[in-house]
Specification:
29% of the residues lie in helices and 24% in strands. With 164 residues, it is α/β, with parallel strands linked by helices. The strands form 2 sheets. The protein has a 5-stranded mixed β-sheet with strand order 2-1-5-6-7, with helices on both faces. A two-stranded antiparallel sheet has the order 3-4.
Length: 164
């Protein structure tokens, strides 16, 4: 008898779609994709890349900025790109797709800015493949407002030229 097939869960399914979307990403530091779904239906997607009409990291290289944190720690961030979560939310707005009450699927814990956008658009659940090394603030915000945060792995996401 052949091995039995096991259908993926909805979370596994939408994370796999996010992986496919990530193949369009144009920043090699964090090629990530995002899916927003509701009632088991895919609503919108987004991937990391420069704003429409502007050059991409893959074309010009990274636009790095140093961020100095309250504790004196410095981290490097590429600011040329719009995050996958931000692009998915923008697509929903551009297309008139309501995402209130939806679930967002992404590669790692959303950054602080993405977390604030997620909160304000009414997303109720966030499913991440891995943790972000600096994601505690986002986790705290989600907990404070009652957004369910699910990790498929406890592993911390690493990426090219990660510091801090």
């Amino acid at each position: 008898m052949a091995d039995s097939y096991e259908r993926p869960s909805w979370d596994e399914y939408f994370l796999e779609v996010a992986h496919a979307i990530a193949k369009r990403a144009t920043c090699d530091r964090g090629r990530s994709g995002c899916v927003i779904a509701k009632n088991k239906q895919l609503l919108v997607t987004g991937y990391v890349g420069a704003p429409a009409g502007l050059p991409h990291c893959d074309d010009l290289g990274h636009q790095m900025k140093t961020v100095v944190h309250e504790d004196g720690r410095e981290t490097q961030h590429c600011v040329r790109t719009v995050h996958a979560e931000q692009n998915a939310i923008c697509q929903a707005a551009k297309l008139g797709v309501a995402i209130d009450g939806a679930t967002l699927y992404c590669r790692m814990t959303p950054c602080r800015t993405c977390a604030m956008l997620i909160i304000n658009c009414g997303i109720v659940r966030v499913v991440c493949e891995k943790r972000y090394h600096a994601g505690q603030e986002s986790e705290d915000m989600f907990r404070s407002v009652g957004i369910e945060l699910v990790y498929r792995s406890g592993e911390i996401q690493t990426y090219l030229d990660q510091t801090g």
